[in-house]
Amino acid sequence: MSSRRGKAKLSPWPKIYRELKRVRAQLQSPWSTLSSALISAKQNAEYRRGLGNRIEAARETYTASPISQTADTFMLVRIIGNDLEPRHRKGQSYDNVLFILDNEPAFEGCEKFWIVNRIVDTDEEARIIGLLESRRQNFHTIPFELDAYRKISWDIDRLAAGDLRFSEKGRASGAQSARYETHIRRSKNLYVMNNNGARNAALAIARDRAKWLMPWDGNCYLTGSAFQRIRSAIEKNPHLPYAVARIVDNALLLDQDFQPPAEEEPQIIFRADTTQLFDENYGYGRRPKIEMLWRLGVPGSWDRYRDDVWDFQRPSRAAEAGLFQKAGWVARLDSGRSHLEIGKAGSVARLVSRDQAIVDMVDQCDARAVAARLDTSHLAFYDEDALGAAHAVKDAPILRHLEAAAGQALARGPFSVLDKTGLAPSGDPQDYFHPAPYWWPDPDRPDGLPYVQRDGERTPGTALYEAGSETYDRTRLQRVFDDTTVLALAATVLGGHHYAAHAAGLIRAWFVDSRTRMNPHLRYAQVRSGHDSNEGSGHGIIELKDFYFFLDAVRLIERTGVLGDEEREAFRAWLGSYREWLDTAPAAATAFYSSSNQGTFYDLQRASIATFLGDSATLAKVSLYARERFAAQVAADGSLPRELLRTRPRHYAMFTLQGWTSLARVLSSVGDNLWQHRTAEGLGLVQALRWLVAHENKPHPMSAETIDPDRLGPLLLDLADHDPTGIPPADLERSTKPIFHPDEAIAPFWPWRRR
After folding, report:
1. Which residues of 541-570 are buried (b: 16+ CB within 10 A; e: fewer)?
2. Three-class SS of residue 247?
3. How far apart are CA 118 and CA 191, in angstroms?
4. Which residue, 450, 515, 712, 727, has fewest beta-carbon neighbours within 10 Å?
């Protein structure tokens, strides 16, 4: 596209037409090395006029250089990378190496060498190395190191909040969505695929061993005639320090007389005295080799590629630009996906599959990094050492609280979804049912349908423990979560089989026994009558938010042996079915894309289930999503704009931040420190907590709202633990009250949580 120009005052169309013709001619010119948006026609003309002089100067410099007295020897270094499914077939890299070793002839004056480049699959790496060793090949291994990979973050801190997944602008689709996914994985891609890093390693290896260096992809194959064509061209014009060998598909490779029309992206040959290196900021799928072609002024279709908003600005021409020659061709061996190699449709499909391959490979590495630190038997929210220390302390106030709470829990339950007096719209008594709390009959309609929202005003029976709540399931579900947790903590800290036995009964009735258990979905949670076919829109998913501490309770109960193996498996089967519903249900997408507390607690729920089931892939995804979500929720001053618009802003600000700190704890159980994350604006959890504390005792819409004064205590302790600038103001009490109302999102006996 053309550069921006001033508005034409008269008859703009002739000028626009001439400009379009000029741009089209420029793009079709064989010497057009960059888009006209970056290099003007005048600059291109100057470049072309000066090229002949620079070629003559290169000839004179070469003749006077000692390298001109050196024989034209070659070193071909092929880089073997990962099989990236679905772009490649698994095992294709090995098969291509085998094909080359079996079929490619030796070339006079050419040493062959291999680089095994960060193969993630250790079995495949061992297979490739074994093949090279069995054929007595010289090679160098660049290892994939999980500890090094684990330290690499996603590339989201360079994006404004409006560009991220959970903003309206960020919800792209199609190719743009694929580009977004690969961009946020750019740094991880750079490490895993290491295209230009390996090419530079090849140049370093070859520079002292040959006059002409060929740092080529591992799927490059040369016939005898193809190599001879390259050698002849270079011997004819050795003063040109670069050569390009065009790529073709591997049709008729074993026909030594085959002379193909080589038009694809070329491989590059460097003379040993050149200084250009590949730019290692360019990753696989985003022009790592083309960046060098641009610098060297090699023309091609890549000059007309479209740039994304987050691409690097295209590089300027190097001083050696134009000092190259076309030197024959090289074949590209099969990727194992032949449909991606044929025609225009194959080219388009190749781009799509390549982006998907990048995402899949990086996500596999992320899952592997998480799996290395994931132990499903370890507590994810509560602290093992804190519970052990509590057991050793006699007559502490918190232990008296625990004993009293456990005594109350022993007197309740077990509970079942069958106990409600109402019925879900499905008619199935085992379907969980609860109406949306802030939705009321429309007074202007005879039947009241569809219901209308009155934020902050609860409909009768939707508040926990109130009269009428027995109609629905919400109160009993909370009893299951809280009582099971209190009893599990009592069994661990105080000792006593009766605590564990009663807790096991609660788990059986709600999740295990086929006659009484809840069906594993929330289709009828927070139903708004007259909306969504009388199913929940997804906001009701938050009613299972307390899995994060409840699943620790299940772990503790399982340690006592009161749940049999079949019961343990049945519980995991239920949890797995619910996880699948969370991943696939249309209603779950509402919670996933929410930029309010709903999204935070959705992430917390998925992370908690993943730690219990050993689902490292989901944990890795939640880790990414949480960082993207945080930028969408927190404003530049550290506030939570969506929550401050509610009728109870103080409650919802604290509620949401409790969700964030709990999510940080669950992720910390697999070594992921969410506290260290910063947005592009430099904001993190600490800054959000600072904002909350700064406005707690100052005039603000939140200050008129009455809440439990002890409720800030857990957040203040978190701020004291993680704020590098010091502890919160001394005039704010840090309560150690052990139990809060469940609506406040503070786990029972929270002082024993992970720090």
Report:
1. bbbbbbbbbbbbbbbbbbebebbeeebeeb
2. strand
3. 8
4. 515
C-beta of residue 590 within 8 angstroms of C-beta of residue 525 = no
Is-contact 517 574, C-beta < 8 A? yes
**Alpha-helix runs per DSSP H in 104-159:** 122-134, 146-150
Q: Which of 747, 412, 733, 303 is nearest to 551 (CA)?
A: 747
* Spatial contact of 471 and 479, defined as CB atoms under 8 Å apart: no
Q: Hey, is 432 helix, strand or coil?
A: coil
Name residues whose C-beta falls within 8 Å of residue 65's C-beta, 6 or more positions apart in sequence: 273
At 427, the amino acid letter reads G
Residue 753: exposed, middle, or buried by beta-carbon count in 10 A (0-12, 13-18, 19+)? buried
For the stretch 84-120, pLDDT in tens is 887 778 889 999 999 999 999 999 999 999 999 999 9
**Residue 229, helix vs strand vs coil:** helix
Quote the tokens at residue 582. Answer: 């969370």
Q: What number of other Cβ atoms are within 10 A of residue 228's Cβ?
A: 15
pLDDT tops 90 at residue 140:
yes
Strand partners, 80: 116
**Tokens at 557, concatenated:** 């109960």
- Is 630 in contact with 660 (CB distance < 8 Å)? yes
Q: Which is nearest to 268 in space by CA: 243, 241, 233?
A: 243
How long is the chain? 755
Number of Cβ atoms within 10 Å of the Cβ of 512: 21
pTM of the model: 0.87
d(CA 735, CA 248): 71
